[in-house]
Design goal:
By secondary structure, this protein is of the alpha+beta class. About 50% of the residues lie in helices and about 15% in strands. The protein has two domains: about 50 residues, YefM-like fold, CATH 3.40.1620; about 45 residues, no CATH class. It has a four-stranded mixed sheet.
Length: about 100
Amino acid sequence: MAADQGIQITEDGVAEVSMTYARANLTQLLREVRYGKRPGAFTERGDRSAYVVPADFYKQALEDRSTVAAMLRMIDEIPDERRREAWARDLIRYRNDLVHGT
């Protein structure tokens, strides 16, 4: 994205702005994030380098992260004698996918 294009709403709904343009229009980007309820992204040479998100999005992300961490702990605490059961194997596989990003 060229610096003179300003804030662009991309196909995935993110308000993108180049680093060159961002300084002069930071308030506009922050309003787009806050009132448009969409994330914003700073770009360098067309690649996203940092995000700005609405406060509610960030709060929800923290809650979700806490919930996932609690679920992972619960899966880790499945007793050895139950780990061979299909439901336990599925949960353990799901846990491993989350942790290892597969």
